[in-house]
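Inputs:
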Amino acid sequence: MENLQLVLPEIFLSLSIMFLLILGVFKKKSSKLIQNLSLAVLIVTAVITFNETIGISETQLFNNSIIIDYLSSLMKIITLLAAFLVLTISSNYLKTFQIFKIEYPILILSSVLGMMVMINSNDLMVFYMGLELQSLSLYVLATFNRDQIKSSEAGLKYFVLSALSSGLLLYGCSLIYGFTGSTNFNIIANQLSSNEYALTFGIVFILVGLAFKISAVPFHMWAPDVYEGSPTSVTLFFTMVPKIAALTVFIRFLYVPFLNLIDQWQMILIFLSIASMLFGAIAAIGQTNLKRLVAYSSISHVGYALAGVAAGTNDGIQSSIVYIFIYVLMNLGLFSCLLMLKRDDVYFEKIEDLSGLSKNHPMLSLSFLIILFSLAGIPPLAGFFAKFYVFKAVIEQSMFFLAIVGLLSTVVAAFYYLRLIKIMYFDEKKDKYDTDHGFWLKFSLTASTLLILVYFIFPGELLDVVSRINII
Amino acid sequence: MMNFPILSSLILLPSIGALFLFFTKGNKKNNFTVKYVALFTSAVNFFLSIYLWILFDQTTSEFQFVEQRIWIKDFINYKVGVDGISILFILLTTFITPLCVISINNSIKERLSEFLIAVLIMESFMIGVFCSLDLVIFYLFFEAGLIPMFLIIGIWGGARRVYSAFKFFLYTLLGSVLMLVAIISIYWLNGTTDIVELYESGIDIKYQNLLWLAFFSSFAVKTPMWPVHTWLPDAHVEAPTAGSVLLAAILLKMAGYGFIRFSLGLFPVASEIFTPLIYTLSVIAIIFTSFIALMQEDMKKLIAYSSVAHMGYVTLGIFTIQQQGIEGSIIQMISHGLVSAALFLCVGVVYDRMHSRLINTYGGIVSIVPKYSILFMVFTLAALGLPGTSGFVGEFLILMGAFKENFLVAVIASIGVIIGAAYMLWLYKRVIFGKLINNDLKQMIDLNKSEVFILSCLAVPTLFFGFYPEPLINTIEVSISDLIDEYNFRLAGRL
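Outputs:
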């Protein structure tokens, strides 16, 4: 019998999902209970992951189709924690729209399960299974506010385009299987020499599929529409959690089986990175809806994270993981602010609704200000360090073009972040918003703002956490 | 006593004051308390920096009061220290900030405590810039200053404040990101960003030109040099008086300091190659912006353009690589810090009373506001470099250095002095003398006590260092001569 305790988190999570589902069906009016139980499940799973696997040296299970190492444990814990926070801060929003139902936490849990499988995968089949599990949950989540036409549209759009990209991805998988005779990453790595050019086709197709999931340009078209149409709490989930898993798969897929083909895929990654950074920065300028703006800003942040992956070194991988951590933190704060723009059960998501916010809500707008400056990458806030590490890794590989384009696009991006600050601080004030937010919303906003603000005092700690990730 | 972290205290103290203000309720009743807290913090900081100057050893060019802590392991150390070049800028910063705080009497009515928080945090960052001995730490402070300044211009500024704040922020950021690339590249080349170590090891000649240009792009915007100076008049015109003072007196000096510390210190070979570029741009700045200043209708804009011209002398002096030239540049920067601060305050004084910055609003006010006229005259004369004022010492030394290096440049720069005299005197004549046409001016009140106090505080060092510049020169002399020796040594080593 193999080491089953290493997959205990996944086993526990899937059993809990089934249990919660049955409980929800048989017990009336149990949405509050299910919500609380799901939160507990996420925490317990994170604890199990931490206890059982974080100290383990690299182990492969189930005919080498699953890999447990420090990278996967770390990413799983971050995914679980992020999902936990999303779930806690979304309850008020759901109640307002009367969609506070049992399905919501369960869908989130099952997509988290899919992500954990993705993160663990060492085999194309396992990877695809995890990907589809998380995607199917996400389609439903996008349409969760089904009475609103925009939400249904978002879900449908996401479903159609995502299915297309999954098709491309599968085609890539089958090409790779055809030329190497296996779907296992280890075996693929040994079979590389035979058919380098044919394999490149497979890599390209899989990269397209992955780029779609992580919403990198030019496969980003779904993101603004879906982000705008979905319920805000789901958008928060979209912008944070799937990106963590997708980035891990990016790293694992490119560096484990295809490290020797780095010349082939590095150019693709550089292109994806530059295009995302530039396009995200430029397209966000014209937006009037905050959620669309966040969509474009997340596209450009994905570009920076990919720049680290493109560097092709351990430093680069570590820097892009640090980047995604800090990005998750900033996004959490940003969406906490958005979820606070509520008056009489109406949520506001237009940019001009921020007008004069600083006069009515000084603390909220101060946090918003800090988060926006951090997203723009202005020192001494956390966002600057994220970019700094990435560009340090990139420049160490003499990729000056990538670094310069990336830093110039931060200047473009600074423009639209500044515009939000301008509207909050320089414009005339409007009516006040509600101030009776739940504890968790206030907590996540305060915590993320403070962490962003004081990150510069302990910049080494996060680097220590990721320094054990040595893929190459 | 040497173990007391005096530089870190200087950096932290204003931030602690700001934190204190943050937790004080900022309503109208508290304005008095809030102001005194800010004043107290910045005054303590000033006395601390005076103490630093007394302890400072003038006979060595080594960095003193060095503090070093591990910040990111195996990568960056938090390292601060001062030498003769930087200490005067720290003094200037701590001297100007309390005056700024006092000057906020009536001009800032709303959100006073937030304004003071921004000013104090700004002070922290600026002191940090002048004493950091690590490139990354330097960049951190250099860029962080954008945030409070953006808010100062944007929230408390004039009618076109949004445009100016954006222009200021984006221009400077654009210049600076290239410097960030250069800093990371230096780390990549040398494995360290510690300035002292970099001074010793030197930087590979192959890369110096590109790195120099990257640093230049940042400093040129910040100085500002022609043709990237256009953000400055806008920012000055729209910023509140205290913001203009900070901007002119201290922010512009960061770049001059950067040129001496980094461009000359780290890239001597590239500096030698690009000296003609600096000469050309400086001379254009001196002549061209002086003529533009001559044409201005708006007093603040006129002084802003005169700042560009004065900074032209500074860059010219720095790149003469002569003892007198660099000394002159530093003294010119200190003097410009005092004088332009005073001139902006002078404009602020009449603006508070008449709500107009246009020159043709005024005229013939000499008999109505005699005290104002006298103090304004002192600063006008200092700005045009009359002997006996600190402006003269700086300009004279710079031109002396320039004559040794390049006769033509020095002659053209000297012509700039004449134009400078023309626009300053003409400004003074149109505002103070002439016929009293505007009847509203008769109601103007002369300077109150605090305004007299502030302007005299600025006038005393202006005149004192004009007659007796020895204390300044003694402080910087050794550091500069060692810098030049090192520079020439490295140049010779290349050949």
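Remarks. Chain B touches chain A at residues 70-73, 75, 136, 139-140, 143-144, 146-147, 150-151, 154-155, 161-162, 165-166, 169-170, 173-174, 177-178, 180-181, 184-185, 187-188 (CB under 8 Å). The first helix of chain B runs from residue 6 to 22.
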